[in-house]
């Protein structure tokens, strides 16, 4: 990516004015949001090393470079939408950034919606943790009926021989 190109984080600035100097290490991200933008831009540009180094030590220990690189290469990135920030200013020690990263992978449009936590560590902002939004496990509202349980229709037959016989 050229420094005069539009920044992939969709800030309205050029890459050289926005995320480029943060990713290259020329300057530190002044806010949690600016680090989030640079992390998104590093996926777009394939600078996976920045993803590792812009995280806390604990996250760096668990960082999976191969899968991050694969995701970066496999996706067509469409933009970043910052939904909200909480703290994360130049004088704060903690910050939260809720965002949507939009991309296409394997022909499917994806909306990665996350709330990320950032901390100031060694004088600079670091990614600490993130939680996906809207990804909730399915919770069954009624008990599961076993194949050999009595059929709930009241026929007196086993479920597998009655209402469950077409399930397979």
Q: What string, H for helix and E for strand, traces the elements in order?
A: HHHHHEEEE
Beta-strand residue percentage:
25-35%
Major beta sheet, strand line-up: 1-2-3-4
Count of helices?
A: 5
The residue-averaged pLDDT reads: 89
Task: Describe the main β-sheet briefly.
Answer: 4 strands, antiparallel
The rounded distance between the terminal residues' Cα atoms is: 52 Å
Shape: elongated
Low confidence ranges: none
The radius of gyration computed from the alpha-carbon positions, rounded to a whole number of angstroms, is 23 Å
Helix fraction, binned, reads 10-25%
- Coarse structural class: alpha+beta
Number of strands: 4
Summarize the structure.
Helices cover 24% and strands 28% of the residues.
Task: Write up what this structure looks like.
By secondary structure, the protein is an alpha+beta fold. It is 24% helix and 28% strand. It has helices spanning 20-24, 32-45, 48-53, 57-62, 65-74; strands at 76-87, 94-105, 108-121, 124-132. A four-stranded antiparallel beta sheet has the order 1-2-3-4. Helix 2 (32-45) packs across helix 5 (65-74). It is elongated. 24% of the residues are buried.
């Amino acid at each position: 990516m050229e420094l005069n190109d539009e920044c992939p984080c969709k800030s309205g600035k050029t890459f050289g004015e926005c995320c480029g100097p943060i990713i290259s290490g020329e300057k530190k991200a002044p806010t949690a949001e600016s680090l989030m933008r640079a992390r998104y831009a590093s996926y777009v540009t394939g600078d996976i090393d920045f993803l590792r180094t812009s995280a806390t030590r604990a996250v760096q220990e668990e960082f999976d470079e191969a899968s991050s690189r694969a995701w970066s290469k496999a996706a067509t990135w469409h933009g970043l939408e910052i939904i909200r920030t909480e703290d994360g200013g130049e004088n704060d020690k903690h910050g939260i950034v809720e965002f949507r990263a939009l991309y296409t992978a394997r022909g499917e449009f994806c909306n990665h919606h996350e709330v990320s936590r950032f901390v100031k560590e060694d004088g600079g902002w670091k990614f600490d943790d993130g939680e996906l939004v809207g990804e909730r496990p399915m919770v069954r509202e009624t008990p599961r009926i076993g194949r050999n349980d009595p059929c709930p229709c009241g026929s007196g037959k086993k479920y597998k021989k009655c209402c469950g016989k077409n399930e397979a």
